[in-house]
Amino acid sequence: MKPFEAIVREHGAVVLRVCRAVLGPDDAEDAWSETFLAALRAYPSLPPGANVQAWLVTIAKRKAIDVHRAAARRPVLVPELPDQAGAETAGPGQHDGLWAALRTLPQRQRETLAYHHLAGLPFAEVAVLLDSTEAACRRAAADGIKKLRTLETEELR
């Protein structure tokens, strides 16, 4: 079995990209750290020949769910109440590059793209992670890519 430090070096960047795509830049590093802390505890019991990257992405997915749940419980502090109900105020970094584009996607499409295109997992494994079918994951990825391309085309005009 490889030393855990080698596992972090080998898969750390992929896991961070997945965390950023699913959670955004603000929460990604905390989720990455939590992922590897949990993985460190469980690593000795990982069966030989296991797909380590898929295992780590699965842990990252669970940590992302934890972040979403925690955020839903936290109060949101605002300097002033908006004039209209539901008016959204933009914070720093919310409209930056890739995260701004990914944020426009429904969560299922965003997660599918992150797990397949950033983590390199086959659609069959993505389907297991998302409790879905392979065909539904393929469709979600295709729809997400199509929307991202549409956004890119609109920005170029």
From TrEMBL:
SUPFAM superfamilies: Sigma2 domain of RNA polymerase sigma factors, Sigma3 and sigma4 domains of RNA polymerase sigma factors. It comes from the Bacteria. Pfam families: Sigma70_r2, Sigma70_r4_2. Residues 98-148 form the RNA polymerase sigma factor 70 region 4 type domain. Transmembrane segments: none annotated. Residues 7-73 form the RNA polymerase sigma-70 region domain. Keywords: DNA-binding, Sigma factor, Transcription, Transcription regulation. Belongs to the sigma-70 factor family. ECF subfamily. NCBIfam families: sigma70-ECF. This is Sigma-70 family RNA polymerase sigma factor. It comes from Arthrobacter gandavensis.
